[in-house]
């Protein structure tokens, strides 16, 4: 018979995809495995000894987690919760988890074992696919409408000019001028709705270059009233992208942030408006249904009042705006450009912390199409 193989159980536990958490009788963290470290974005060293309820921070928790944990601890009765929402770093994630008691050897105190399975990734992928589809349908609709609006405008403008000339009366000039300037405004709007007709021209770009351009534009525009903090990872690889389009994306998002901060001065009584530009490598991101091992992430963060809750889910749709003078096209155009680059934009927002994250793959698959 074969000799039993000696297994290093620590290694085994650290390679599980299930996140595992051990909790002591005071409901403090005793141990967590690697999956659990990445789920909660915290190291074992930092988490040890912390109240587990700080980690298992339930969003809208009607279920009393503390009571349930103590109950299992005292009675040994395990329990399972499905589709629980926990909040990690301002993000809601969904998990199924099971709590059971471990009757360890006599010398040890009993512990609680919590096994968590993140169901988010699947939820998120299907939600993203839906969003992308809906976004494409909406864009086509908008382009169709923009065409229809634009077609008669040339005729109206020409006829008004003829009318002005034949009336030749300063009394009516004011009215014909209004028609012409409103027609021009509509034409500009329709052009923006149609989007750029130029094909992207791809080249290798270090994302910090366009980001710095946007930073200096914003600095000049806001006359230094907004603090701009840079938090760059300078080791990022170059991406294959259209430099001008990247600038447009970053500018659309930064201008929104600046508007949110400058148009809501009453929000900044006790803190200073701040824009943070952050770059990182992000591992394991699903874009358009494909899991990417590593992508470039650019965060544009502000500490304004946040995206109004009623439009947060639809903020990338064309014509969705929370501002009286907004057209609601900036983010839709930005998202469209990012899709063409094989990337995407995500938004998370609460008061004092709004982050638009741009994800850009750095392998060239999108260019070959
Ligand atoms: N950083 C932010 N903070 C708060 N609200 C935001 C932020 N970014 C976007 N929004 C909200 O999202 C809406 C949509 O933004 P979007 O850029 O698409 O359109 P817009 O700014 O209204 O018009 P425009 O077409 O001129 O850009 C904004 O009107 C605003 O209400
Ligand atoms: Mg905008």
From TrEMBL:
UniProt keyword list: ATP-binding, Hydrolase, Kinase, Nitrogen fixation, Nucleotide-binding, Phosphoprotein, Transferase, Two-component regulatory system
Q: Which organism is this protein's natural source?
A: Acinetobacter albensis
GO BP annotations of the record are: regulation of DNA-templated transcription
Keyword check for Transferase: yes
Top EC class, one word: transferase
Name it: Sensory histidine kinase/phosphatase NtrB
NCBIfam families xref list: PRK11073.1
Q: What is this enzyme's catalytic activity, as reactions?
A: ATP + protein L-histidine = ADP + protein N-phospho-L-histidine
The protein's role, per its UniProt record? Member of the two-component regulatory system NtrB/NtrC, which controls expression of the nitrogen-regulated (ntr) genes in response to nitrogen limitation. Under conditions of nitrogen limitation, NtrB autophosphorylates and transfers the phosphoryl group to NtrC. In the presence of nitrogen, acts as a phosphatase that dephosphorylates and inactivates NtrC.
State the superkingdom. Bacteria
Q: What is its EC number?
A: 2.7.13.3
MF terms from GO for this chain are: ATP binding; hydrolase activity; phosphorelay sensor kinase activity
Q: Tell me which residues make up the Histidine kinase domain.
A: 144-364
């Amino acid at each position: 018979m074969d000799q039993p193989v000696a297994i290093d159980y620590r290694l085994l536990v650290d390679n599980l995809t299930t996140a595992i958490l051990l909790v002591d009788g005071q409901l403090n963290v005793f141990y967590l495995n690697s999956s659990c470290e990445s789920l909660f974005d915290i190291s074992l060293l930092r988490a040890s000894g912390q109240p587990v309820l700080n980690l298992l921070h339930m969003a809208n928790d009607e279920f009393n987690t503390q009571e349930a944990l103590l109950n299992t601890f005292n009675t040994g009765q395990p329990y399972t919760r499905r589709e629980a929402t926990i909040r990690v770093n301002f993000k809601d994630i969904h998990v199924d988890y099971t709590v059971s008691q471990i009757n360890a050897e006599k010398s040890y105190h009993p512990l609680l074992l919590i096994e968590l399975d993140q169901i988010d990734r699947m939820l998120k992928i299907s939600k993203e696919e839906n969003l992308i589809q809906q976004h494409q349908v909406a864009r086509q609709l908008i382009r169709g409408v923009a065409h229809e609006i634009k077609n008669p405008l040339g005729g109206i403008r020409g006829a008004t000019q003829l009318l002005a000339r034949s009336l030749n009366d300063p009394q009516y000039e004011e009215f014909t001028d209004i028609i012409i300037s409103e027609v021009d405004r509509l034409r500009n709007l329709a052009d923006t709705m149609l989007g750029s007709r130029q094909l992207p021209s791809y080249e290798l770009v270090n994302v910090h270059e366009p980001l710095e351009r946007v930073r200096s534009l914003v600095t000049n525009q806001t006359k230094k009233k907004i603090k701009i903090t840079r938090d760059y990872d300078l080791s990022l690889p170059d991406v294959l992208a259209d430099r001008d389009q990247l600038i447009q994306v970053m500018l659309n998002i930064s201008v929104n942030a600046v508007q949110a901060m400058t148009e809501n001065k009453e929000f900044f009584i006790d803190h200073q408006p701040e824009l943070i530009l952050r770059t990182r490598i992000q591992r394991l991101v699903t874009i358009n249904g494909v899991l990417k091992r590593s992508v470039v992430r650019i965060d544009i963060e502000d500490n304004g009042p946040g995206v109004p809750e009623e439009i947060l889910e639809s903020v990338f749709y064309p014509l969705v705006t929370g501002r009286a003078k907004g057209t609601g096209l900036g983010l839709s155009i930005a998202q469209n450009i990012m899709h063409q680059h094989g990337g995407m934009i995500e938004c998370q927002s609460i008061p004092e912390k709004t982050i638009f994250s741009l994800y850009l793959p750095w392998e060239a698959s999108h260019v070959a199409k």
